[in-house]
Write a structure and sequence with these properties.
This protein is α+β, with helices and mostly antiparallel strands and 768 residues long. The strands form four sheets. Strands 13-14-12-15-16-17 form a six-stranded mixed beta sheet. The radius of gyration is 29 Å and the shape is globular.
Length: 768
Amino acid sequence: MNHTEYLLTVGGLLHDVGKLLYRYNDKRNHSVSGFEFIQKEANIDDMDILEQIHYHHAALLRNAKLKNSSLAYITCIADNISAAADRRKNNEEGWGFVREIALDSIFNRLNENDENKKYPPAMLDKGINYPTSKNIKYSEEFYSKCINNIKNCMRAIEYNENYINSLLEVLEANISFIPSSTSINEIADISLFDHSKTTAAIACCIYQYLEQNNITDYYSELFLKEKEFHNKKAFLLYSIDISGIQDFIYTISTDKALKNLRARSFYIELTMEHIIDELLTTLSLSRANLLYCGGGHAYVILSNTKKTIQMITDIEKEINHWFLENFDTALYIAGGFTPCSANDLKNEPQGSYGDIFKNISNNISQRKSSRYTANDIIKLNHNVADGERECSVCRKTAKLNNNQRCSICEALENFSNDIIYKEFFSITKTAKGLPIPRNKYIVADEKQSLVERMKTDDYVRAYCKNKMYTGNHIACKLWVGDYKNGDTFEELANAANGIAKLGVLRADIDNLGQTFVSGFESAENKDKYVTISRTATFSRKLSIFFKYHINEILTNGKYCTITNKEGERNIAIVYSGGDDVFVVGAWDDVIEFAIDLNDALNAYAQETLTISAGIGIYPQKYPISVMAEQTGELEELSKQYPNKNAVTLFEEGNTYHWDTFINDVLEDKYVKIRDFFESIENKNNHAARGKAFLYRLLELMRNREEKINIARFAYVLARLEPDEEDKQANENYKRFAEKIYSWIKDEKQCRQAITAIYIYIYSIREKE
């Protein structure tokens, strides 16, 4: 990043800081108050930055008499482009600004939703901030707290390019729930953070585009001819995708499977972040230009220059060469891009925004269909060296150590504990650690060891886990789903009630790709909310939910019909990315967590998104690769359910809409079955027969098509009838018999009862 790009990034990020002051107690123009605040409180005296803050609105810029090459002209148009995409008129007429207005939920207009929910005032890392229908107002006290936090953090930052991402972190932590606009004319669903971040990204792209075209008169090009510039293809929307993630994570065979799974999934996540940062560093940009990263996918906004296109092409080739050298064909990265204008990013003309993503998707598909050159294929066919054997973990052919593992699998296993217990992960040039693309290494650090490492030439950058830090080349905090309440499959299985078996859950968002591209389309609103700002905000919200908030959902389990207890789940996260989840744990906790996850997502996204899941139950020593494959198949059955939004348990035929599973299978049939058999549990003459009855009942229900089985069912049921003198028991039996007899006569009810009986049997089976 050259000095001008650094200045533009800082100016773009801080240009609207005066809005905080205005909403607190400073009634002046926010450009003026922001200029004075940054000059005084942040000790920034660089006029190139201060001019951007002072003159980012045309009204002040017009009479400022700045030089034609002032960066204020770039920030002004970048702010306009970002704001035009952010602030779309509300359907209701109004006027003026309301200082205490709350941030609207980004999900209010997603997937044809039409709500008016708000976010309570909060900092980013203070738990899940669910949108609410309550009348929310932001107080002066809240704004005062934000201002003081930012002021204190900024005083600890050195103002050079090494700390640029630290500034980004400070703003994300403090202003993610503050609206960019407080106009009652507009939908205030874009935060001040997202607006400032987008402004900084757009400003740097514009500068690079102008620089390539040898344009230095920003006044004429951007201020006098602003409308013409909005039609120029000055930007590239670029996306990259890592293929082979599932096989890389799950195709392992080892007695330390849980550790290896966690390490491999985290390694993929960190590799993707590293690739993004290498790309941005090479292109002289910051993480402000990163729109989304999660689940092996990323979107970045770049400048449309020959230099940019050549650089991203070269980096892709370099990374894929490294993947071939280290993982054969297991991993591959494919990229795609399309040029776009400011108007395209605002969906003007209508449909142009969706076309950007369609073009990118087509580019990536073409890349994936022809991955390797002829030379690559020849090399792969002659890649086996003498003395190489099959790794006992990943099954790759390589030179093995004494543990019969390849060097990367050995390093991953050694790394697994660090994922849970270490706070920092450094990228180094030569220090021994996990190898990563572009000939770098990952090393886990404590705070003190990181400080010492920062002083060396070997240090490249560092990532923090689930906490905000600032410092020299601190790239960002990584939201990491790192919850675990058990170190081995055996521990997790033995923590279950009843039978000691593992539950495995795989789940992901339905139709996410379609939502990402066209979720804000609406014929009624004429697609006016289809903008890059909303896509970026929605993506960030979803990523935080699955990468970070999932830890809180697991720590504070709510649903407890099976386990009869709230609180910490006996579960370990294997993977939780941008939109999907894989967890392993005690079978009963896994089922209840699936319900918690669905409920939390419904509240978080206002039922605009649905999730489909597969749940399997397995012995402790069952191969993890087979568990992953089979639960993936169960998940796919849920995806085939009408309108999706379903869960499939155990085997084909047990697919239910979430409401049906919760209300009809568990709260109705499971509870009735459990309550009845618990009522006869202490009656010795019926307890043994009760358990045998359940197995017999299952057999008859599974073969209900044979009419004779209905009669047999009635006979078996009659054998449970209690003694005549026990009136209460007789009454309970009568109600239960009538209910269960009605279930077997109805196909849907019978299927639900079978699932409920399975769950109850698992809960009372002795540990084996």
